[in-house]
Design goal:
357 residues; alpha/beta; Rossmann fold; Glutathione S-transferase Yfyf (Class Pi), Chain A, domain 2; six-stranded antiparallel beta sheet; six-stranded mixed beta sheet; 43% helix; binds adenosine-5'-triphosphate; binds magnesium ion
């Protein structure tokens, strides 16, 4: 999959920008504050319906502007074309697919982007939410019924939480929602575990190339409640405790997964660089697993490559992506040496983007 044309209006410093990236490597070069991350952020927004920068929702809209739009023409490897758009006016986000209004989830399913950026080590170092998002993005693109299931789970969770907050004590009011949570939780857990099993094969391959010094790797899933009871039984037993907390404290919405190595069993054993390389391995594995299922690679964005990895690891990563024939959008204050020969270069300056000929 690749983006053939990208237009952005009023996203941060990008006032009105149109870019036509090449099918392979593209490097966006510019000084600090020029707008490079914002450009990649636009592509990520189309594919995730949110930014990769934490807490960025309100800051996305250019100061003084009332609306922002992002539009892309996507070409699938089989030649199919899609026009996707995402806009925000006031507080409202609206997605468009081939000229028609569409739910954001449909946009997300049409546009697949995997991104590595200065925040990516959070996948390893930060809280569970980041890892659940990563996992669910992957499952969503492999199991197309996952979103429905997840929505059913969220609806039942909301209902149970309302009962808890209202201080309801009648078990009969909880039972239907707890049964629904139990059903959906089992299926969510099966899919997530299955996804991690498939991911492990590829993570193992990338880890052996990127951090061979850490030995073999394992991925462990924690389902969000104890193994010895079903979720329904757990919730029934936890009602009074949950009432005190005002929300449901166990379930797949509290799940997590961890990466552990033979020579670094805890994440605290990893250096910052090893955390980043582990995140790269997971992201590459996710991109390749997507490719196995979808028959094509997602678009890969790498923000600030040179500041994230040393030259040897940069060259290794670029080599892997070149072999995959994925479309790559890389940003940096300079062009990495390993890319000088075959990348299309763009210059980014004060929110303007132009190809470097
Ligand atoms: N809502 C906004 N409205 C206008 N300008 C904004 C807004 N949010 C951020 N900016 C500005 O947009 C510019 C581009 O930021 P961006 O993070 O894309 O730069 P960058 O090229 O990635 O820089 P760096 O090399 O430092 O990472 C910055 O100067 C920033 O101050
Ligand atoms: Mg940046």
């Amino acid at each position: 999959m690749r983006v053939e044309k990208l237009s952005i209006q009023a996203l941060r410093c990008l006032d009105d920008v149109t870019v036509e990236p090449a099918p392979g490597m593209n490097v966006f070069i510019g000084a600090n504050g020029a707008g490079k991350t914002s450009l990649l952020e636009a592509v990520f927004l189309l594919s995730h319906g949110r930014s990769f920068r934490a807490g960025a929702r309100d800051a996305l809209l250019q100061r003084g502007a009332s609306a922002l739009t992002i539009y892309a023409e996507l070409v699938r490897d089989d030649g199919q074309r899609r026009r996707v758009g995402l806009g925000r006016e006031g507080q409202r986000w609206q997605a468009r697919l081939d000229g028609q209004s569409a739910p954001i989830s449909q946009l997300v399913s049409e546009c697949a982007v995997v991104s590595f950026d200065p925040g990516s080590h959070a996948l390893i170092a930060a809280g569970a939410e980041e890892r659940r998002r990563f996992l669910d993005w992957g499952v969503f693109h492999v199991e197309h019924d996952f979103l429905d299931l997840w929505r059913r789970y969220q609806r039942a969770l909301k209902q149970r939480n309302s009962l808890l907050r209202a201080g309801e004590t009648a078990g009969s009011l909880y039972l239907p929602w707890e049964r629904e949570l139990d059903d959906t939780a089992q299926a969510i857990t099966v899919w997530r575990k299955h996804y991690l099993d498939q991911l492990l094969v590829l993570v193992t391959k990338y880890v052996a190339q990127l951090v061979p010094e850490l030995g073999s790797v394992a991925l462990r899933y924690r389902q969000g409640w104890g193994d010895e009871w079903s979720l329904g039984e757990t919730l029934a037993a936890q009602r009074y405790r949950d009432m005190g907390r005002g929300h449901t404290t166990q379930g797949p919405h509290r799940a997590d997964w961890t990466v552990s190595y033979e020579y670094a069993p805890l994440r605290e054993h990893l250096s910052r660089g090893q955390e980043k390389l582990t995140a790269v391995a997971c992201l590459l594995a996710q991109a390749e697993l997507f490719a196995q299922h979808a028959g094509e690679w997602p678009i890969v964005c790498i923000d600030d490559l040179a500041s994230e990895l040393d030259q040897i690891h940069q060259a290794g990563l670029v080599g892997q992506l070149r072999d995959a024939h994925a479309q790559i959008l890389i940003s940096g204050t300079d062009c990495p040496p390993s890319l000088r020969s075959d990348a299309l270069l763009f210059h980014v300056e004060q929110g303007r983007v132009s190809p470097l000929l």
